[in-house]
Design brief:
46% of the residues lie in helices and 18% in strands. It contains 5 helices and 5 strands; from the N terminus they run αβαβαβαβαβ. The longest helix has 22 residues. 26% of the residues are buried.
Length: 140
């Protein structure tokens, strides 16, 4: 009787192992973009690149983050020339984050910023962390 119980347990374990493998989705691709220029052309290029990545892989199969610091932070202000595109990108699933160190240095508050963006304490540290986690790094 013990032999049958052992075999039944083994069969269940093997079955669970194979079932789990079949239902586990492949890992998402991950890319982080750096924008540190206060240039609408560079910003539009970064937003185009991010959208192209989503279009190539499928928005549900890729994580895209744009990290903004230094002079680039101006493009995340509520009234910037790229405000509508930034908002549209976030609605499409692209995470856009502003460096709080840069904001403090430029005396900007969250009230000054596009309400669609997120925040990180330090943009450069965020880029380092993402690269350490295996994210592809792009600077348009």
């Amino acid at each position: 009787m013990q032999h049958k119980s052992f075999l039944l347990g083994l069969l269940i374990a093997v079955s669970t192992l194979f079932t789990g493998c079949a239902t586990t989705p492949p890992p998402k691709e991950k890319v982080v973009f750096q924008v540190s220029n206060n240039d609408a052309g560079k910003w539009n290029l970064a937003l185009n690149n991010a959208k192209n990545v989503q279009d190539s892989y499928g928005a549900d199969k890729v994580e895209v983050e744009i990290v903004v610091y230094g002079p680039g932070i101006g493009m995340l202000k509520a009234e910037s020339p790229t405000a509508n595109r930034v908002t549209a990108a976030t609605l499409a699933g692209i995470q856009i984050v502003a460096c709080e160190n840069t904001m403090a240095a430029q005396k900007l508050t969250k009230a000054d910023m596009n309400p669609a963006v997120g925040y990180v304490p330090a943009g450069v540290v965020e880029l380092m962390a993402r690269q350490k986690q295996g994210w592809a790094y792009i600077r348009p």
